[in-house]
UniProtKB/TrEMBL annotation:
The gene is glnS. This is Glutamine--tRNA ligase. L-glutamine binds at residues 74, 219. It catalyses: tRNA(Gln) + L-glutamine + ATP = L-glutaminyl-tRNA(Gln) + AMP + diphosphate. It is found in: Cytoplasm. Pfam families: tRNA-synt_1c, tRNA-synt_1c_C, tRNA-synt_1c_C2. Its EC number is 6.1.1.18. Monomer. GO terms for biological process: glutaminyl-tRNA aminoacylation; glutamyl-tRNA aminoacylation. Gene3D superfamilies: Glutamyl-trna Synthetase, Domain 2 (1.10.1160.10), Glutamyl-tRNA Synthetase, Domain 3 (3.90.800.10), HUPs (3.40.50.620), Ribosomal Protein L25, Chain P (2.40.240.10). The lineage of its organism: Bacteria, Pseudomonadati, Pseudomonadota, Betaproteobacteria, Rhodocyclales. Keywords: Aminoacyl-tRNA synthetase, ATP-binding, Cytoplasm, Ligase, Nucleotide-binding, Protein biosynthesis. GO terms for cellular component: cytosol. ATP binds at residues 42-44, 238, 273-274, 281-283. Its main location: cytoplasm. It comes from Azoarcus sp. (strain BH72).
Length: 577
């Protein structure tokens, strides 16, 4: 099998430097064909669109090479982590359609092994307990251009180090009095190799291990060990860890030499993180948006979280398509939001059934249609999929149409309803506009028309009518009013908070200033009766208006409310709205 082919026969994924590395390893037999990746979130927040890129990459590689991808909670920092985040991350990865099978892990389950690894390093003379203050340590670290200097504690004996480290663990010392450091090279041009800290004292309760520990491993020490314990072959991370790779390799080599892990050792590979316009992906900013009430919670459909995306009506397939389309690279770049939206449209165009909704309703009265009478018209559920059949759409004397579909005095090129003009009511009859009714202020309150009894769609001769307008409508007697949320981009500017021309000298623009005031509009619309049966998360194309999803939180049986996912066309193209 070509390793670029998905198991289910989906089109080959385009090659990239990570696939090339895996192909090379498979050729050389380095891992005997095994491919094991991991997605290692820290459970300190909700996943966002950027994580989706990493999830699709890691799980996607495992899928296409017949390997496995682990879901590993990197929960080595006791202070910021919570079960709520663990649950939401599990749900999000499942929602994206990926399966870790038996490979669900928690880094905190490895605390004993990590501790043993640290003792091994001490015994090999590769780690020491430093008792300088944080400030003193910083002063000796050196700079990018100057080497660091050795700590006076660097030469402690192995026995003294072991004794101190064990007493750190036993809780004899206050926070900040001692740290365990790797003994590498204070003069290294790579600052990450200047005796990095690997264990520190923290009197904090961990969400899984409780108060079992009062020392916790540093992320840079814990992560390579987690990979080695799980037999990860390719440890894929974002570019900012490139300078950490020498330490990753140093540490695993030292531990393999001490007999902790077999060789070959996992290999770290870096790729460029997702930067997306019109959103913010930093955890700090997302928390601020939620805490200060700029959005309605973590699953607000405007927020770039995956719970938000789900309520927005974005699809897992859309995210996978997006991940494939943007690919993986070695250099940072910006992806335009329209690329993501277009991927959603592409999937929804294929997956979503069509329905009719009138978002800005105006009454149309068919004056020559009998009062109280009604009949069924038939609308195809999907223009590209006749096998999905048709649904009934009741027609009657009074209909709702879009206000913008009538002009008493038409402008040039307007082919919809105006006195004297003939249009087709989609899937129904051809009607001729005869006038309108107005209120005292001159606002149009109803449009009047007459229908042609022999023009019903699908009947012989119906096509003989040549009309230019083709309008959607909902029967007033049969349709129902429902709440619709018209969501749009959360920010009105591609780079929220970035300095702009015209900003006063020295002015610090906040990303909050760039919030789009029209990012959520709530309206009451008239929907065709078939939509009453929509189930939470069922998605539709509302003809002419875009893609909508029945809200999974606020819909009740028989009365769904809908969120707009995306408009049919990109309304932000060419310099914004
Ligand atoms: P933190 O600043 O808290 O570390 P984080 O966004 O890196 O935030 P993690 O939970 O550490 O959050 O991320 C899990 C994985 O997702 C990491 O492997 C990280 O590289 C990847 N990831 C995070 N943000 C992006 C992004 N914008 N694009 C691609 N991958 C990302
Ligand atoms: Mg991180």
């Amino acid at each position: 099998m070509n390793p670029n082919d998905n198991k289910d026969g989906a089109p080959a994924a385009p090659s990239n430097f990570i696939r090339n590395q895996i192909d090379e390893d498979n050729r050389s037999g380095k891992w005997s064909g095994r491919v094991e990746t991991r997605f290692p979130p820290e459970p300190n927040g909700y996943l966002h669109y950027g994580h989706a890129k990493s999830i699709c990459l890691n799980f996607g590689l495992a899928e296409s090479y017949g390997g496995a991808c682990h879901l590993r909670f990197d929960d080595t920092n006791p202070e910021k982590e919570e079960q709520e985040y663990v649950d939401s991350i599990i749900e999000a990865v499942q929602w994206l359609g990926f399966d870790w099978r038996e490979h669900l892990y928690f880094a905190s389950d490895y605390f004993d092994i990590m501790y043993a690894c640290a003792e091994s390093l001490i015994k090999a003379g590769k780690a020491y307990v430093d008792s300088l203050s944080a400030e003193e340590m910083r002063a000796l670290r050196g700079t990018l251009t100057e080497p660091g200097k050795d700590s006076p504690f660097r030469t402690r004996s192995i026995d003294e180090n072991l004794d101190l480290f064990r007493r750190m663990r036993a809780g004899e010392f206050a926070e900040g009095t001692h740290v365990l450091r790797a003994r590498i090279d204070m003069a290294s041009p790579n600052i990450n190799l200047r005796d990095p800290a690997i264990y520190r004292i923290r009197r904090a309760t961990h969400h899984r291990t409780g108060d079992n520990w009062c020392i916790y491993p540093m992320y840079t020490f814990a992560h390579p060990i987690e990979d080695a314990i799980e037999n990860i072959t390719h440890s894929i991370c974002t570019l900012e860890f490139e300078d950490q790779r020498p330490f990753y390799d140093w540490l695993l080599d030292a531990l393999a030499s001490a007999g902790h892990f077999p060789r070959p050792l996992p290999q770290q590979i870096e790729f460029a993180r997702l930067n997306l316009t019109y959103v913010v992906l930093s955890k700090r900013k997302l928390i601020q948006l939620v805490d200060e009430g700029h959005v309605d919670g973590w699953d607000d459909p405007r927020l770039p979280t995956l719970v938000g995306a789900r309520r927005r009506g974005f699809t897992a397939e859309g995210f996978r398509l997006f991940a494939e389309r943007i690919g993986v690279t070695k250099s940072d770049s910006w992806i335009d939001m329209s690329t993501l939206e277009e991927c959603m449209r592409e999937h929804l165009n294929e997956a979503a059934e069509r329905r009719v909704a009138v978002l800005d309703p105006l009454k149309l009265v068919i004056t020559n249609y009998a009062e109280g009478a009604s009949e069924q018209c038939h609308a195809p559920n999907h223009p590209l999929k006749p096998e999905l059949g048709k649904r009934d759409m009741p027609f009657g004397r009074e209909l709702w149409i879009e206000r913008e579909d009538f002009m008493e005095e038409p402008v040039k090129g307007f082919h919809r309803l105006y006195p004297g003009n003939t249009v087709r009511l989609r899937y129904g009859y051809v009607v001729k506009c005869t006038g309108c009714e107005k209120d005292a202020d001159g606002n149009v309150t109803a449009v009047l028309a007459e229908y042609m009894a022999d023009s019903k769609s699908g009947t012989p001769g119906a096509d003989n009518y040549k009309v230019k307008g083709n309008l959607h409508w909902v029967s007033a007697a049969h349709g129902y009013a429902a709440e619709i949320r018209l969501y749009d981009r959360l920010f009105a500017h591609p780079h929220p908070g970035q300095r702009r021309e015209g900003d006063p000298e020295g002015y610090e623009r906040s990303f909050l200033e760039d919030i789009n005031p029209d990012s959520k509009r709530v309206i009451r619309a008239w929907l065709e009766p078939a939509l009453r049966a929509a189930k939470p998360e069922e998605r539709f194309q509302f003809e002419r208006h875009g893609y909508f999803v029945a809200d999974r939180r606020d819909s009740v049986d028989g009365a769904p409310v809908f969120n707009r996912t995306v408009t049919l066309k990109d309304s932000w193209a060419k310099g914004g709205k």
